[in-house]
Amino acid sequence: MAVYTDVAEGELGAFLKHYPVGDLLSYKGIAEGTENSNFLLHTSTGSYILTLYEKRVEKADLPFFLGLMGHLANKGVSCPLPVTAHDGSVIGTLAGRPAVIITFLEGLSLRRPTATHCAEVGKALAALHLAGADFSMTRPNALAIEGWRKLWTAARGRADEVEPGLAAEVDADFADFERNWPKGLPEGIIHADLFPDNVFFLGEKLSGLIDFYFACNDLYAYDVATCLNAWCFEKDFSFNLTKGKALLAGYQSVRPLSDQEKAALPILARGSALRFMLTRLYDWLTVPDGGLVMKRDPTEYIRRMRFHRAIKSASEYGLAEYGVS
Amino acid sequence: MAVYTDVAEGELGAFLKHYPVGDLLSYKGIAEGTENSNFLLHTSTGSYILTLYEKRVEKADLPFFLGLMGHLANKGVSCPLPVTAHDGSVIGTLAGRPAVIITFLEGLSLRRPTATHCAEVGKALAALHLAGADFSMTRPNALAIEGWRKLWTAARGRADEVEPGLAAEVDADFADFERNWPKGLPEGIIHADLFPDNVFFLGEKLSGLIDFYFACNDLYAYDVATCLNAWCFEKDFSFNLTKGKALLAGYQSVRPLSDQEKAALPILARGSALRFMLTRLYDWLTVPDGGLVMKRDPTEYIRRMRFHRAIKSASEYGLAEYGVS
User: Fold this and answer.
1) Where exactly are the structural domains of chain B?
2) How far B107 CA lies from chain A's nearest CA (Å)?
3) Does A30 sit within 8 Å of B29, measured CB to CB?
4) How far is it, in rounded angstroms, from Cα B28 to Cα B7?
5) Nearest residue to A231 via CA among A276, A189, A184
6) Which of A278, A298, B1, B244 would you label with B222, given CA atoms 20 to 30 Å apart?
7) What is its EC number (chains A, B) (predicted)?
């Protein structure tokens, strides 16, 4: 939520000459993204986002992220399209940092999405999974079980400061996941962070998906489970079954889930809740207060972990025609 | 340089229904202004700036600032036009704060303005002075000598920490200004803060003047003197005579300065340099490091004060046909 790097008009003008974006009319540093510096540009051909990548983004992963956005946009997914420079490159250098121009998507991210919005998100997620199937690059999920384990090792000693009993609770989850984490489910490109912040709407119509910087190869159903966590819980941590139904029906209208995927949803949702709890917990315990990174409460995800632990069947998420086992 | 207040899409949408701006397409918090929270809005009718006034702005002064912008814009000055709500009001309430929508001006503020840009600024400043002449409201300059004295009283004790000898130097200036500050020169509405940050260009053409939150009634020539300080010094603190000439010729092509105004320029420029030195010094000594207010080096203006003290005649600023006294 900050512009880290300042860019002078002269150097930006020189940089833009390498791209087919027309003449620069204005640019404003925008309070978006915690990892990068972002600017909204107006040019004679439209609006663009200029991103300067700060050190928290792995530069080696940029070709994957940008290639994926280009691939998805060309397949009709409403996501930003990286602009290719006249010399064919996508990643340039500005203010000493890797810099990229992407098309600007109009739309609003919603604080209070409705079931109708959840259905749209489900459809868009499935469309993203299908569109990514023939993307040629791969990237392992750095925040799969092994990555969680690293965060947990760093945070475990102080976990009970945040919530008494948390250390034992999470240890038990890890033991369970190491035995029972699903194998052999359909996998491919997932967004991995499709929270309301990263989805734009114009009215009830989804107008864009953004922020592909966690995208990776992993189980499609894990991405669905993350969306259940991100979209279907109310502020009081209750699960909104209507939203769950809408999201899952939307997804399945584009890509039906197999019985194995359905059966795996509760453990995947629990793992996904643990993943977001762990990154929040880690930041909570290690990032100084008042810094540029906004610290978010890990306990919101402890509540979700507990909810999912009590789920007996994926039908409780609102899966249509899925029998209670 | 920060967004202080976050605004949810739902409350913004409800707020905008009161204004004739069309449908909201997107909004981004922008890193602009140190006093307020600013958002760049795209709507179906164009681009706008939404400003939420935080506590550093005197709310009682808002009708003056906004009325002035409306007055000037209607007289053809390229400045933001406050949008009037359907009920005739200009100042609304959003997120518990006074909130205003103004039209967005395209343009770039320049780090390295040329003499051509300085001529444009001179012309625009004079046009602003003429356009403001029949504005019906008045606002005293809170940062005239009395205001400087308050800042100095607060900062004087530690002034020599910043520059040895500064306390004695500034005391002598105050004594001089109290005897010799010009009286009876033409006065009216001045911008009072027309720095490169607050002027937009598209190529060599001036496209907009912004940030009227220091505007007040004072001597026109004082505003000219501030522009000499703001536009005509190089990074090494040398005065660029070509830029000075261009700025003054530009100004005089629209509003000629009287001989009394010309003769007063050196003391006005010295006073203006003291004014910016004092606000910077005050922040330097009182604002904690790492806060949201960017602290700027007061010594840049000590250098300007000294330059102006050595000026024998306003011709040294580049005034055409003005004899050395």
Assistant:
1) 9-103, 115-317
2) 5
3) yes
4) 10
5) A276
6) B1
7) 2.7.1.39
Q: Do B31 and A112 touch (CB under 8 A)?
A: no
Contact call for B110 and A2, based on CB within 8 A: no
Tokens matching residue A240: 């909104």
Q: Do A42 and A220 meet the contact criterion of CB atoms below 8 Å apart?
A: no
Does residue A14 sit at the B interface (CB-CB below 8 Å)?
no
Contacts of A268 (CB under 8 A, 6+ apart): A182, A219, A221, A222, A224, A225
| B128-143 confidence digits (pLDDT tens) | 999 999 999 999 999 9
How far is Cα A240 from Cα B80, in angstroms, rounded to an integer?
A: 45
The CATH superfamily assigned to A115-317 is Aminoglycoside phosphotransferase (APH), C-terminal lobe (3.90.1200.10)
CATH 3.40.50.1000 fits A9-103, yes or no: no
Distance from CA of A166 to the nearest CA of B (A): 32
Separation between Cα atoms, residue B149 and residue B133, nearest integer Å: 28
Residues of A in contact with B10 (CB under 8 A): 110-112
Query: Which chain A residue's Cα is nearest to B7?
Result: A111
Residues of chain A with pLDDT under 70: 1-3, 33-34, 56-57, 290-294, 321-325
Q: At what angle do helices A62-74 and A115-132 cross, to 10 degrees?
A: 110
Report pLDDT for B248: 98
Per the CB < 8 Å rule, is A26 touching B1? Answer: no
pLDDT score, position B47: 98
